Amino acid sequence: MADAWLQETLETTKTRYLAARTPADRMVLLRELARLSGGRALPPAQLMPSETETLARFGLAATADGAIRIVDEDLSDIAPGLDAALRIDASPRGGVSPAPSDAVLLRLTPHDRYRSRAQKSAIQTALTAPDGSSLMVSMPTGAGKSLLFQAPVLLWRESVPGACAVVIVPTIALAEDHERTLRGMPGLEASRAMSGSTPLAQREEILANFRNGDIPILLLSPEAAFGAARPDLLQTACALSAPEKYGQRGLLSAVFVDEAHIIESWGRSFRPDFQRLPAFIGELRTRNPALRTVLLSATLTPASQSVLRADYGSGPWGEIHARTPRYQFDLSAADFSDQSERDAALYRLIDRAPRPAVVYTTRVEDADRLHDRLTQEGGYERVALFTGAISDAKARREIVERWAAGDLDLVIATSAFGLGVDKADVRTVIHACLPESAARWYQEVGRAARDGYQGLGVTLWTRKMDRAGPRGRSVDEVGRYESDEDDAASMAGNGWLSAELAEARWIALLKGAISDGRDSHGALRLVLPLDAARDGLDPRYTGERNRGWNRSLLNLMQRQSVLTIEAEAPREDETPKHWRATILRDEVLNPQDASAWSQAWARIFAGRDQEASRARAELRAFVTAMQRQDRDCLLRSAYRLIEPDAAPVACGRCEACRRQGVSPPGGLRSDVARFAWPPAETLRPILPRGVILVAPEGSQDRLIGRLARVGIEQIVAPEAEAPDIAAALAAHPVQYGFVQPAEDWLRRDGVLPDLPTAFLPPALSTLGPWVRELERLANARPHQHLILVADPASRVDGRALHQIASQHAPYDEAILDEFFVAFQGTGI
After folding, report:
1. What keyword terms does UniProt attach to this protein (predicted)?
2. Are β-strands 690-695 and 785-789 bridged in parallel, bridged antiparallel, or unpaired?
3. Which domains are seen in the chain, by residue range?
4. Could you tell me the pTM of the whole model?
5. How many CB atoms lie under 10 A from the CB of residue 519?
6. Which of 251, 373, 328, 378 is nearest to 93 (CA)?
7. Could you read off the pLDDT of 125-141 as tens digits, one per residue?
8. Rounded to 5 degrees, what are φ and ψ at 114?
């Protein structure tokens, strides 16, 4: 595999080299060819004089035989350990062990195994989720989260052909990337992405097909869900017999939220529509109480988890956290005393960084400046700028498509770029900034090495200097921060309005509010004008900027349980100028009641201060981890800040690990579900409840068929036998056909789904542990149907197995056929 990957990467790099037109683009790719070849390579084409003149800039030199070699292998002046991080390593860097398949995976998808135990557990949990439930899942980037909305929809459509789902995504690029993947999956080819830039006629066609159940998965931004798609989603959520359906066959069965961590961070101020999703999902559930929600992310900090539980935890709730980071990266970081020193190191690094590469900045203006320098002075052409300031959807899509096609080698971006976009061969991620949290840093480094091979992550940032007096700027002023550390501190506290300005804004919103009656609990409902301007507001700051601050205020008030933001009626421009809100605390309605008013705002800002303090504390801890990278594993330290309950091992590829001689890990086991949903009433096997003992006859394939016919939906067996058992189960009409490794079950590593289950110990195994664990399970699940397949005469602790394993007399395997004939469809 290593040789194949290396050869493929060499050929791809040569192709890009030959397509490049400027000396800068060609020389940086020539350096990459040399790196991939062990430090020396022959140019694929004769060098032009203009190219030869630039060799030194890229740390290259010509040899007597016409080859090119790397001459500046010591790059510690850019970042500690960078030279070691850049040495080619062609070996796979998976780290996490795969997991054996299930019958349902083989039946519904082209996959023959799961990428990890966490993915397997999450899929099983999503497939068995009860009506009205919500599931929160965090798994590493590239761990296969998309399968969590692909497999359930395929399963649901087997029984309800018009069953469909909505996937809420943060970026158009991610929606379109998912659409490309779904179009290649049997049964999901008709899935579509829709955004504000979708032409009206095409949008109407998509929504009509969705209402009729012809589109299995519809990918939307939250703004589109609240805008053009809203009435169609509400109608599709109704029962198939509802008169509102007008005979249409679509049935909205679930809402998935991809990259759910941004609900807490982006939803605070940048994209506040994310925080309106719970109310909209609640409205959908009034039409379809069975609607499920699934929240997916690679990074769910304690703050994000708290927000998601509060917003989505009204029905049955479940969580799965893999608690395993990705280990594909060589990591390095350096801090600098000033920007000019950092930028000099940055430009040298960009001229040497393996391609394709992404350079992240925090501010749009920094990305603009860097892009201009690289194109105008650096001579790069195969580079693009991608920031939130690029509002033209066509231009953004073109960049993503060129990036995916390999026509770009470098992208200068702010954090929205690449969010979830599955470009597998990104080799380098550079932070020319200090991210405001470990979560953002980890998410963005995770854009690299998604093919499971070597990736490089380098962070270059300017530190805060010790000096007296104020520095930086407040969030409302215009100017620059003195350091990246100051900038990160402001970002960590971004969107935190002062108490005085917040009260003034709320008074302005109340003055322009229109009553919308009261809800069923008597709470007042208001239509609030987002264009309301507080007294004294500079006229230059009206318009969208003013609306943004008002949205941030309303989101703050919702997080502090003062009001609930409701979904807005559709508008043509998908940027509503009004929000509806249900007031939960009447104290904020009357400024004249000074005592109640001040107490209410004191509570609001106590909560706000707690949020801001937590964000800043997380930043301080992340800065400490960066500063200690020569002593403590950087990946482990950062990941502990994201998932405090995790216990990751050292990465083996950062400066501390290299100094301490720590090897990269292998064979890692991700975590799995620690709960089981209540059993489905629809699964009623034709077997007695409790444990029954069945004597095997010899043919495992025949046994699997008999178990499937009497309603067994899960088999526990040695992991080595799991693939064959899954394949045998897939040949029979089981709904799930889960296959669980006995080794995990016996050591109580995880919780089995609450399904009719058969246990298949090896013929010569020691049965004592199996019997004891089965007894424990049977006591916990007296309602369940459990089969132990073993010789009834086997001895356990000096007693015959049939005397201790079951209250029922043992059965011969053939009796299962008689059960099926005698009791088919009745249940016992």
Report:
1. ATP-binding, DNA-binding, Helicase, Hydrolase, Isomerase, Nucleotide-binding
2. parallel
3. 1-73 (no CATH), 117-321 (3.40.50.300), 690-823 (3.40.50)
4. 0.87
5. 13
6. 328
7. 999 999 999 999 999 87
8. -90, 155
